[in-house]
Amino acid sequence: MAAIVNRHSEDFGTAPQISPQDCPEIAAMGFKTVVNNRPDGEGGLEQPPNAEIEAAAKAAGLNYAYLPVISGQITEQQARDFAHLLATAPRPLLAFCRSGARSQNLYQLAAMVAAADAASRQ
User: Fold this and answer.
1) Is 7 exposed, middle or buried (0-12, 13-18, 19+ CB in 10 A)?
2) What pTM did the predictor assign?
3) How far apart are CA 95 and CA 117, in angstroms?
4) Which of 7, 39, 62, 66 is most buried, by the most CB atoms less than 10 A from its CB?
5) Which CB contacts under 8 angstroms, 24+ apart, belong to 75-79?
6) CA dist 1 → 5, 14, 76, 96, 104 (Å)
7) DSSP letters of 24-72?
8) Cα separation, 39 vs 82, whole angstroms
9) Which strand (E) or helix (H) includes residue 12?
């Protein structure tokens, strides 16, 4: 796999842009879910389309979610949607974007939203 996976916890990792050919290796690494945080077309023609990665992920036995976010413009709703994925999707979960940084930022924001929601319920 060309991308280097950064494991942030036992249940979560991030990676730069993956290709459809990376999906069997991602499954072999033990990941159960892949989340694409990169909008289609952001990287031009070199970026594999979401549909191709989704098909390859499913063929490799992975769950797949598409939650595109624009770098530097993550919304509260996107953080909530990601928190929901973290709570409900089979783990471990691998999120990717262009460099992995946006997915890591989204993960941190999702954790903050989840903690705030839990505190408000007490």
Assistant:
1) middle
2) 0.94
3) 23
4) 62
5) 76/113, 78/106, 79/106, 79/109, 79/110, 79/112, 79/113
6) 9, 14, 32, 13, 20
7) HHHHHTT--EEEE-S-TTTTGGGSPPHHHHHHHHHHTT-EEEE----TT
8) 15
9) strand 12-15
Q: Where are the domains of the chain?
A: 6-121
Length of the chain: 122
Domain 6-121: homologous superfamily in CATH: Protein tyrosine phosphatase superfamily (3.90.190.10)
- DSSP one-letter code for 5: P
Work out whether strand 6-9 and strand 12-15 pair parallel, antiparallel, or are unpaired.
antiparallel
State how far the Cα of 33 lies from the Cα of 74, in Å rounded to an integer. 21
pLDDT in tens, 53-104: 999 999 999 999 999 999 899 999 999 999 999 999 999 999 999 999 999 9
In the numeric block, which tokens belong to residue 113?
């939203």
State the residue for tokens 């077309």. 41
- The predicted pLDDT at position 4 comes to 84
- Nearest to 109, CA basis, from 43, 37, 16, 53: 37
